[in-house]
């Protein structure tokens, strides 16, 4: 799990990208980006999330994002990328989604 707190702005974007991509590169069973305590998400940071999600998908690693904060919910919805990012309101919902996804994959 990758956890961020505070503002995801230009000062942290590179580090945020590096941490996410490093985690995905380890090929875990799943990656959860816990952004439930993020109060600002720049467009650049949102792009990092989209890139990381695509990278995880290509690597076969399910990726979920956790946030009920308007700072992330609103741009994801307004930009129409909610079909790309697996955005969940809390950690329990993300874990449930990942469990259900795993069960579906195992039964296929």
UniProtKB/TrEMBL annotation:
Transmembrane segments: none
UniProt xrefs under PROSITE patterns: STAS
Signal peptide positions (record): none
InterPro entries reported for this sequence: STAS_dom, STAS_dom_sf
Pfam families: STAS (PF01740)
Domain STAS, first and last residues per copy: 1-101
Coiled coil: none
Name the record gives this protein: STAS domain-containing protein
């Amino acid at each position: 799990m990758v956890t961020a707190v505070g503002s995801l702005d230009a000062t942290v974007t590179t580090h945020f990208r590096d941490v996410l991509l490093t985690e995905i590169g380890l090929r875990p069973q799943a990656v959860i980006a816990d952004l439930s305590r993020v109060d600002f998400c720049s467009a650049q940071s949102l792009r990092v999330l989209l890139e990381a999600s695509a990278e995880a998908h290509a690597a076969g690693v399910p990726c979920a994002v956790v946030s009920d904060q308007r700072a992330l919910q609103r741009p994801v919805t307004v930009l129409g990328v909610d079909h790309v990012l697996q955005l969940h309101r809390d950690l329990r919902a993300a874990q449930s989604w990942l469990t259900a996804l795993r069960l579906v994959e195992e039964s296929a």
